[in-house]
Amino acid sequence: MNRKTLVLPAVAGLLTPVLAACGGSDSGSTSGDAIVVGTTDRFTATKAAPAPLDPAYAYDVGTWNILRQSVQTLMAQPKGEGEPVPDAAESCSFTDSGSERYACKLREGLKFAGGDPVTAEDVKYSIERVLRINSDSGVSALLNTIDTIETQGDRDVVFHLKTADATFPYKLSTPVAGIVNPKDYPKDKLREGFDIDGSGPYTFKADVDDDAITTATFTKNPSYKGNVTVNNDKVELRSFTDADAMGEAIDKGDIDVMTRTMSPAQIQKLDTGDDEKVDLVDMPGLEIRYLAFNTNATSVKDKAVRQAMAQVVNRGELVSKVYGTQAEPLYSLVPATVTGHSNSFFNQYGNPSADKAKSLLAKAGVTTPVKLTLHYTTDHYGSATKQEFEILQKQLNDSGLFDVTIQGHPWSTFRPAEQKGEYDVYGMGWFPDFPDADNFLAPFLDKDNFLGSPYNNSTIQRSLIPQSRREADRLGAAKSLTEIQDAVAEDVPVLPLWQGKQYVAARDDITGTAYALNSSSTLQLWELGRGVSG
């Protein structure tokens, strides 16, 4: 077996506010047969979430990876790393010195896959639609710095922002800013089901069973004009119930590639085994895991309880027992490789100590043991999640300060219950929308945040987040970003646990796997091709 390690910069800041146009994408090596990619992501329509693939609703890495192949955005994250590049746009830039006016010009002759022209009015419609619907997934918060959108002719769009936002080009590269055809997407309500119509690199067709996608077929869109080169004619994305079933499929040759989420045992086996037909590629990743708290819940409303948990949890033990070298302890919401990171939780709590935790609780007059239930999802972040929570349970209970039980739930019920505030403490993962420290902080701490958290820190929301967004040079934002992270370590509305690597396994005739995922876990199916097996 061959193992490949891709070394890329884990993140790059906004180097310049002016972004020049990049080249087109008609050609590239193509394959006769569809390249088949396996995933354990589940794509389900439910009563609570009937429109999982609408850009105005979708807000998880799996559904975004479907949308990124089929719905085009003005900007796009590049093949490697760095600031966003134009995609549907020919060029984009800030046109003022205060990062409050952002102008884009569409590529000439841009069309939806169905043949209708893509106009500036379509861009305006698409983004205003997201803000108008304001779905309970929280995704519209990514665009909350927009004040008004102006169009000039068919190709020019100008965004007037409420406040300075140097991260805005990144936000325009995410699927929430996807350009949709007004004919297919209602103005005031979500588009239910599994249909997608866009101008991206591929057209999309879903095979559905029992309100869940079994296979998503991406066919090269001949009308696409944008930044990427499409290296294949067709890709099938097949959803598996678990990592073991996906692993059996690649061993048999039923699939060509497997992505998220492989189990730690599978990765270790591929890393050390002798299967010469399958290559394992590991690359930098910005995935994080954390515990989140409903800070209004009686059991964890007292800050001392959350601080005591932060004082007891042993990240090193957790990582070594469950993930080995595939993850690293994390002491902030911002990963260690991202500009602006600070080890705020280690600075605040140091090494794990039951005695220090006991002192925190006693000082606050909290009766022990504190009874808690930790909730986790059984089918969204991989099979190792259960073991992770068993170790967290043991660490907390062994301190003598907590009486913890754990409960697992499928994502289809876990996420709606979490959004409704039904869980006091629950485990979540985060795959960044874009690789900037702002995207590891604002989604959890700003108004209308992703978690629906009741935690409210007015200094963070009104002062520190806006200050950090004024800095086009992200190093200049470090002071504000550090203050935010220090406040999180003090109040503990969330408790960061670990930062992970990411992996792709592919049969040895598949090319392009080194760029099949970027550091934000964006699936770039267009990079895959079929070569000669060796």
What is the count of β-strands? Answer: 21
Let me know the largest β-sheet: 12 strands, mixed
Number of helices: 14
Shape: globular
Which percent range describes the beta-strand content?
A: 15-25%
CA-CA gap between termini = 11 Å
pLDDT < 50 stretches: 1-31
State the secondary-structure class: alpha+beta
| Percent in helix | 25-40%
Mean pLDDT score: 91
Radius of gyration: 23 Å
InterPro entries: Peptide/Ni-bd, SBP_5, SBP_5_dom
Subcellular location: Cell envelope
Family: Belongs to the bacterial solute-binding protein 5 family.
Organism: Streptomyces lavenduligriseus
Task: Provide a descriptive summary of the structure in words.
Belongs to the bacterial solute-binding protein 5 family. Residues 83-449 form the Solute-binding protein family domain. It holds the Pfam family SBP_bac_5. The structure is a single chain. With 534 residues, the chain is an alpha+beta fold. Helix content is 25%, strand content 23%. It has helices at 61-70, 120-133, 168-171, 243-252, 264-272, 303-312, 315-322, 344-349, 354-363, 385-398, 411-419, 442-445, 458-469, 478-491, and strands spanning 2-5, 18-19, 35-39, 75-76, 85-86, 89-94, 101-106, 146-152, 156-161, 202-209, 212-220, 234-239, 257-258, 278-293, 327-329, 370-377, 402-409, 425-430, 494-507, 510-511, 529-530. Strands 1, 3, 10, 11, 12, 13, 14, 15, 16, 17, 18 and 19 form a twelve-stranded mixed β-sheet that branches. A five-stranded antiparallel β-sheet has the order 2-6-7-9-8, covered by helices on one side. The longest helix has 14 residues, at 120-133. The termini are close together. The model is unreliable at 1-31 (pLDDT under 50).
